[in-house]
Amino acid sequence: MPESFREKGYETVALASLPYSQSYYFSRGFDIFKDMRRINMTSKMVKDALEIIEPLDKFFLFMNVGSTHRPYDYGETRTDWKEKELQEYNYEGGEVNKEYLEYLRKRQIEAIEFVDEKIAPLLEELEDTVTLITSDHGTCFGEGEVCGHGIGRKDAVLKQLRVPLIFHW
Q: Is residue 74 within 8 Å of residue 110, measured between CB atoms?
């Protein structure tokens, strides 16, 4: 997609908080690619994006915000996670800790609300701009005996494929 925008005369900009984003070629096609290095840097990502796009006339901006990914460290500091809880969360098949899964669901919702709040200044700054907000994958919280993403039975995989898609223009 960035290559298509670049061919049409747009500056292409990406900010990503994915581990290994450069080594998986996520930077391909972007004139400017900034790897945020940690998943919980939403405020800095928005600040950097505003600074980068400010002088640009036509641009395509891609942001992958990691704060909504496990372990849902949506603040600017890391949460203290216990290894036992992570093992229970990663458990595949059999019994899962339902109380802990509910806790994670709540953390995910709080993380989404946090990101909504933090990206608001960026969205307010954009004029005459098509905005698309989506997710790279869904997450299972015990559905199909799966916790997380990337694995599982058909019902769990389908849950991971269903993501929000919001257009604004």
A: yes
pLDDT for res 79: 52
**Cα 127 to chain centroid, rounded:** 23
Residue-wise pLDDT for 82-134, tens only, equals 544 554 555 555 566 777 788 888 888 888 899 999 999 999 998 888 888 88
pTM of the complete model? 0.78
72 domain-assigned? no
DSSP collapsed to 3 states, the chain: CHHHHHHCCCEEEEEECCCCCCCCCCCCCCCEEEECCCCCCHHHHHHHHHHHHCCCCCEEEEEECHHHCCCCCCCCCCCCCCHHHHHHHCCCCCCCCHHHHHHHHHHHHHHHHHHHHHHHHHHHHCCCCCEEEECCCCCEECHHHCEECCCCCHHHHHHHHCCCEEEEC
Domain, as residue range, for 99 = 79-168
| 71 assigned to some structural domain | no
> Percent of the chain beyond pLDDT 70?
76
